[in-house]
Amino acid sequence: MVCTMSFLRALLRTARMIRPVPELPAGWPADHAVMLDAPDERLSPALVAAALGEYEPAAKLLATTRDAAEWELRDRYLNRLVAFARNRDGWLRSWLAAAPHDPDAALVKAQLAVERAWDSPARAEQLRAVGPVITAATQGDPRDPVPWRLALDHARGTRATHTTFEALWEQAVQRSTHHYGCHVAALQYLSAAWYGSHRECFDFAERAAEDALPNSLVQALPLRAAFALLADAPGASTTSVQLDRTDAACDLAIALSASFAPGDPWPAEVRNLLAYVLVARGRWAEAREQFERIGPHASSFPWATVSADPLGVFLDARDTARRRAAARRPSGDRGRPRGHYA
What we know:
By secondary structure, this protein is mostly helical. The chain has two domains: 1-38 and 197-342, no CATH class; 42-190, Serine Threonine Protein Phosphatase 5, Tetratricopeptide repeat, CATH 1.25.40. Helix content is 64%, strand content 1%. The chain has 18 helices and two strands. Strands 1-2 form a two-stranded parallel sheet. Helix 2 (43-51) runs antiparallel to helix 3 (56-67) and helix 8 (131-138) runs antiparallel to helix 9 (146-157). Mean pLDDT is 90; it is low at 331-342.
C-alpha cells in the first residue's frame, strides 16, 4: 500500500497548507455538509432504534429485504447494522433471546462473529471456531446469497483451499449470478494479497464486468482490482500493462457512474473508489467530475485504508482534484501511479 498511501498523505499535507479554500463551485456541498456513510431513509430508523436497545426495526428491515429478494440492499444493510453492533450489541442480544431461530438475527450474529474473529491475533483459529454459526446462517433462506458472501470471506480467512472456495462460490452464484458482494469476496480471495495474483484478479474482474447486467455495480469490479494493484504493488513491479488495465477499469467505472444521477447514494461507494483511483493516477479533471457526482455522500471505503480520518482525507482529495483540474495541469502522467512522485 506504500505508493498510494504515501501520495494521499502528501496530498493531505499539501491541501492543509494552502487553505483557506476559495468558494466552491456551484452545486458542490460545503465541507460541513458532506456526510460519511450516511444511512438512507430505510436504514436510519433501524440504527436509531438500535441505539436505544430496540431490535424490532432492524428485524423488520432485514425481513423485508429477504421477502422481496433485495439481496444487494440486504447485504448493504447487514454491513451497516453489524458495524453498529460491534460497539453496541445489546439490541442484537435481545433479538437473539426473543427469536433464537430468526434467519435475519442469525445472519447478523454470523457476520459479527466473523468480524470479531478477523480482528484476533489468532484469526484463522478464531474463524474456524465460528464456522457452525456461518453454517446456521446459510440454512436460513435457501434463496439468500448474502450468507454465502459471508462464507466466502470466512474461507479466505481460514486459508481454505481453492477447491473449497470454488464450492462455496458455486453455491453463491446459484442464488444470485450477479451479486456484487459475493464477487468482491471472490476478488479478494484471488488478489495478490491473499491467494492469487494481480493478473488473476484483473482477469476475474474483467470477465465478471463483461457478463454483468446493465447498471450493475459488478461493472466496477475491475476498479476493485485496480485498487488492489495500487495498494499492493511497489513501483518497480507495476507494469505498463497493469496500468493500462487500471485506466481501462477507470473508464468503465466512469461510464457506470454516468448511468446514475449525480448525488445518488446507491453508487456512492463505487464513485468514492473511482475518485480515489483517479486521484492516484493523476487524472484530475475526471476525479473532479466524480467528486461532483458524489455530492455529500462520502464513504469510509476506500479513504479509511489510508487515514484514520476518512472524511478528512476525502475532503482534502476533493479539494486537490478541484484545484489541479482548475489549473489545467496535464492529466496524462499515466505511466506509473502518482504516489511515486508526490
